[in-house]
Amino acid sequence: MASSPPNPNPNPIDSRVAKTSPIFINSDTFPLILTHESLIRHFQTNLPTLSSTITTPVRQNYTVSPPSSLLLMPSWSSSSSLPYMGVKLVTHFPQNSSMNLPGIHASYTLFSSITGQTLASMDGTVLTLYRTSSISGLASKILARDDSQVLIMIGAGALAPHLIKSHLAAKPGLKRVIIWNRTPQKARDLAETLSGDDQHKEITFESSDSLDEIIPIGDIISCATNSTVPLIKGKNLKPGTHLDLVGSFSREMRECDDAAIRRGRVFVDNEAAMEEAGELVGAFERGVMKKEEVGGKLVEVMNGEKTGRKSSTDITVFKSVGSGTVDLLAAQLLYETYVSK
Questions:
Q1: What residues make up the domain containing 83?
Q2: pTM listed for this prediction
């Protein structure tokens, strides 16, 4: 009996990466196919198993003309269940504020790690908003108290509504959101906008002009600012608070004081936070805490390698600076959802 002919394609290409024409996913498409809840769930399912398969080199930062810069953030996976490579290109032009333009713009390109084909380009700015807020939401889900009812949002920029929605998705028991911003009208405008969202009719959205009044009542405090002066005073944190620090990404930036770091059990999204975040770098330099006293990375808590919240009175602090790992996982979910529609 004749033997069967050899398989001409012993390693068939995954249908997810066999596309011949790259697609473009614009900012308007994101909310149609992606929710903060679905991305939190995607991270919770895949970070523990796939993060170790993803290579993410240190981001490259080039000065274009001071103070403007170009950042390159590549990552790729060796897992067959994540057959992708991705690169995020970010421009930082702080002088844009004088022209009423955002200071940061980004684009993300997704490639097949099997064929090298370009699969998709997508709005990297919006991708960053979703992935950053959803990592904070995941940390809140794991570290914040389940009976949390009051969310304090410090900052009312582009990231703030995403953070609010992510924390609400992570902790359904939240009933009240109070927003503070250096420009009080921006906080009032955001509260009014969110109050008109049919998805959160049961939530009370309000604004406040006084940080000292609202910090002591927060169960979850999320901070997304460019502040170089500590806004959160540790002495004002009540026992059991979960503090989510998102804004700082350089040694000069700082959203909370040393007392907050000293009182809290600190967790990070990745090791870069201990080299880049002003709150932590400063705390190490001033002897407030040692690097080895950091409670661990979020994925280590998820894997049971490190212990998260130990009691209802613990103050937990989560500091994130972002990474190509979560960019790649977010792009995966967005791309696969898009092509399956």
A1: 30-127+325-340
A2: 0.91
